[in-house]
Specification:
Residues 18-202 form the Glycosyltransferase subfamily 4-like N-terminal domain. It comes from Corynebacterium spheniscorum. This is Phosphatidylinositol alpha-mannosyltransferase. Pfam families: Glyco_trans_1_4, Glyco_transf_4. This protein is an alpha/beta fold and 408 residues long. It has 14 helices and 17 strands. It has a seven-stranded parallel beta sheet, with helices on both faces. Strands 13-12-11-14-15-16 form a six-stranded parallel beta sheet, sandwiched between helices. A two-stranded antiparallel sheet has the order 4-5. Helix 8 (237-244) links the parallel strand 11 and strand 12. 44% of the residues are buried.
């Protein structure tokens, strides 16, 4: 396969860890490992310059303690072009941190002009951030990936006629799940190819091997993991906390995610809670590999369920709400599913299913083994090849056409 110059656009801020951001960085790393030139553009703050001035150090310390929490600029690979700070906007039951305005448009045009890309890969082209702006400004081979699966949007219906000229530039579409694909068909009239999210399964299998070597799971009460922002109700933490009140087996709950710890978790009768906050990908893999059960009590707005695959790869038994997207990832209709489901939003059903897994180590092991096998289908070595095939289908083998900014 010929080597290509690939530009990838992320609409959401890299200052916060999210499924789309992780997907884009992992895809870029895999493509670069195969010899392709890749640049990524998206919202991201610039790191503050270090200072030796004692007064400035004091002011920064006081501001961090007293002002509303703002994440520090993250460490990012050198192939990421930092597009500036983002602002939070509520969307689909979550908070999207996006960029827009004249400065963003100038940065987008510079990215397109300097990149000389053979293909431009835009994620969430409907998002009013770098994605939509790059789509408006670019001409040439363009691929779009759709991650979101949302309810019928009146705002999008109103805006669609204005967006249509830009959306018609897209030569190939990718949806990460059947629910995301169906939403695009119903809302926008497009029919993207289905290519699932990818996972760096090697990261999780290494963590699992280390946990097995140290026999971590044999030395303590069962451990349950929850992952998600604590200030997003749709992640379902309240459902899990209510369910844990009905559990009679001593367990440890490890909560990964930004936000303020919940006071209602302080008096759970049989549960010891550890609030881990934001963690690195390596730390997340370690926590999952050392755990027994991963619970995903999400209430909706999920088009795939990438963390379910990560938990499977790490050897966790997965217990998830019966959202359509989660059911597909768990292969729920199989003779031996890779995850067990409970009724969405029902703490009583969750408590029953969770207690069953706690009482039956053999069932936990069967789920975990099936999950490890299931996760291999989502490894980036497979997924990236499918994405590259889409790139090849719309680019000129003679490289006579490149992505360029539109004429103004």
């Amino acid at each position: 396969m010929r080597k290509m110059r690939i530009g990838i656009v992320c609409p959401y801020s890299f200052d916060e860890s999210g499924g789309v951001q992780v997907h884009i960085l992992d895809l870029a790393k895999e493509l670069r490992s195969r010899g392709h030139y890749v640049r990524v553009l998206g919202p991201a703050s610039k790191p503050k310059a270090p200072t030796r001035n004692p007064l400035k150090k004091l002011l920064r310390f006081v501001a961090k303690k007293l002002l509303p929490s703002k994440p520090d600029a993250p460490e990012l690979p050198s192939f990421v072009v930092r597009g500036g700070s983002a602002i939070p906007v509520r969307y689909n039951g979550s908070v999207a941190r996006i960029c827009f305005g004249p400065r963003v448009r100038r940065r987008a045009r510079a990215f397109l002009r300097e990149g000389r890309f053979d293909v431009l890969h835009i994620h969430e082209p409907n998002s009013p951030s770098y994605s939509m702006i790059c789509l408006q400004e670019a001409e040439g081979p363009i691929v779009a990936t759709y991650h979101a699966s949302v309810s019928k949007s009146r705002a999008l219906n109103i805006a669609h006629p204005m967006l249509r000229p830009a959306l018609e530039k897209i030569r190939a579409g990718i949806a990460v799940s059947e629910t995301a694909r169906r939403w695009q068909v119903e809302q926008l009239g497009t029919d993207p190819v289905l290519i699932p999210n990818g996972v760096d399964t090697a990261l999780y299998t290494r963590a699992l091997a280390q946990a097995q070597q140290h026999k971590t799971k044999e030395l303590r009460p069962p451990t349950i993991v929850f992952l998600g922002r604590l200030d997003e109700p749709r992640k379902g933490l309240n459902v899990l906390l209510k369910a844990l009140r009905e559990i009679h087996t001593p367990v440890t709950l490890k909560v990964i995610g930004a936000g303020t710890p919940r006071s209602e978790a302080s008096d759970l009768p049989s549960t010891k809670v550890h609030w881990l906050g934001r963690v690195s990908e390596e730390e997340k893999a370690r926590v999952l590999a050392e755990a027994d059960i991963y619970v995903a009590p999400n209430l909706g707005g999920e088009s795939f369920g990438i963390v379910l695959v990560e938990a499977m790869a790490a050897g966790c038994a997965v217990l998830a709400s019966d959202l359509e997207s989660f059911s597909l990832v768990c292969d729920a209709e199989a003779e031996q599913p890779a995850g067990q489901l409970f009724s969405t939003g029902d703490p009583e059903d969750l408590a029953v299913k969770l207690q069953e897994l706690l009482d039956d180590p053999g069932k936990r092991m069967a789920l975990a083994d099936a999950g490890v096998k299931r996760a291999t289908q989502y490894d980036w070595s497979t997924v990236a090849s499918q994405v590259l095939a889409v790139y090849e289908s719309i680019t000129n083998a003679n490289r006579q056409e490149q992505v360029r900014p539109r004429r103004t």
